[in-house]
Request: fold
Amino acid sequence: MTDAARTPTSGQPLPAAAPSSQGVDARGVLALLDALEAHPLVDPHSLVLVRHGRAVAQGWWAPFSPEQPHLLYSLSKSFTSAALGLAVAEGLLSLDDRLVDVLPELADAAAGERARSVRLRDLAAMSSGHLAETWDRAVAADPDEPLRGFLGIEPEREPGTVFAYNQPCTHAVAAAVQRASGQTLLEYLRPRLLEPLGVTGLDSTGWKQHPAGRDLGFSGLHATTDAVVKLGLLHLQRGEWRGRQLLPAAWVDEAVRPHVTTPHEAEVDWRQGYGYQFWTQRHGYRGDGAYGQFCVVLPEHDAVLAVTADTPDMQAVLDAVWTHLLPAMTAAPLDDDARGWDAELAERMSALAAPPAPGGAAPTGAADWDGVLFTPTHLARGGDAEVRDVRVERRGETWHLVVREPGGDGAGWVLDAPFAAGRWTTTEVPVGDGGDGVVPVALSGGWVGAAGAESLRVEVRFLQTPHRLVVSAEREALSARARWVTAPLHGGPLAGMRSPVPTGPARSATSGGQV
Reply:
C-alpha cells in the first residue's frame, strides 16, 4: 500500500512529534508492537499514541488504512456518553429524569416500581438494578420496541445499587437523547463534537440502528481511529478542545470516575469499577468494544492510546500496554540514546502490515477449478457464515472468489473479488440490489496441501469491521466452508459488514505490492 493511501483525506490531523521529545522511549512502543504481533490471538489493525497532545506513534496494519471507519462495538457507548453529557449541558435532559418520564408512551410497560424508578444516571452507569444482560429478553418481548420489553423486566435490585453490563441501558440513553433533541445520536454529535474535533472520515461514519431510525447507542458505530483517539484526548483535557469547551469539565469528571463497583467481572481491568459508559482500570480509564477496540486514557501520563483489532483476548492487549508502554513514558524529554530509536519506530509504523494468508499460486491442473460450484457442508458448525455457494473463476491472469449469499429469489448478494497468494488484494464490492454504497474487502490466499490433492483457502477481511472470513473449498468433494475467525456479534448478511452509510460510487482496485 502506498504512503498516499495511508494519509487521511479529510479532517484535522493531530500535531505530530518525535516520541523522545514528548518523553516516550520508542523502544517501549516497539516492544508493544512486538507483543501484539506475536500474540497468537491478537490481530492488530491500528494503533495511535498521543502524549502531551502530540501524536508520537500512529500506524495501520495494511490493508487497513486511516480513512476507513471501523466497527467499534461497545466503544460506541463512550460516544453515547458524550451525547448524554451534551444533552444535560443544554438543559434537554437531567440525570435524575426517569426513563418512563422521558418516554411516557412506554410507561405502561413497566413491570413494577423498580422499573418505573430507573433514572438516566442509573442507565448511564449500567446500574439499572438488573443482575444480568437483558437485551435478548427485551427483544424477544417486543422486537419492534426493545425498550418496552426492557421496562417489562423488573430489576432484581434497587436501581443504582448493582452493576450488570446490560445493553438496553445504553440503548435507553440513546433513545432519551433522540427524544429530547429530535435527532439521532450521530446527527446530534456531528456538529457538537465530531466536526469541532476535526474527525477524519466523517462522510463514511455510520451507526447501526434498531428499530429503524434510532442509533443503537450501545454498539454499531463505525468510526475511524482518529475519532477514537480524539474522543480520548477530549476527555483527557476535561472537555476542552483548542480553546473551546466542547464538553463541560464537570461532566467529564463524572463520566470517567467509578459510580458502581464491578467485582464479578472475569478480568482484572474490568473489575475496577464503571463510570458513565467508561470503564475504570488499573491505570486511568477507557472505553472499549468487543474484539479489541480501545480508547485508553492515562491522565497520570498525559497520554491516550487508541487501538483497533480483532482478538478474543482483550485483557492481553491491556497487559501488553501496562508491561511495555507505561515504563516507556517519562516526565521529561529523553537523552540522545533514546532519541536514536525514534527513526526506527517511525519506519516500523509506516510499514505495518497484516501477514498474508497461507496459500500458494494456482497449481498445475488449476483449470479444473475454474467455474466449479462448491456447496457448503458445515453450516451446523458454530462460527460459520451462511452462504449459498462458492466458486472460483479465472479471468485473464487473475483468480476471483465468488461467494453467493442465500436470497429469497435464489439470487442473494454476491461477493466477487480477486485474490492472490502472498499479498492482500483490496476491492470495494457494490452492495447492489437497490442498496447504496460498497463493502470494502481485502483478500489473500491460494491453494494449500500436497500436489495433486490441493484445497483452496482464501481469507476475506471486511475492512470496516474487525472480522475475517476464511473460505475453503475441496475439489474432490465439491464442498466448501465459510468460517468466521471471530463471529460478528450483530449477525446479518455479509453485505451488511460495512459502515451503514454510502461510501461513494462502487469501484474496484487491487493493491499490486506485497503488504
The chain has three domains: 1-68+226-243+282-354, 70-223, 366-496. Residues 44 and 309 are 4 Å apart (CA to CA). DSSP finds 14 helices and 20 strands in the chain.
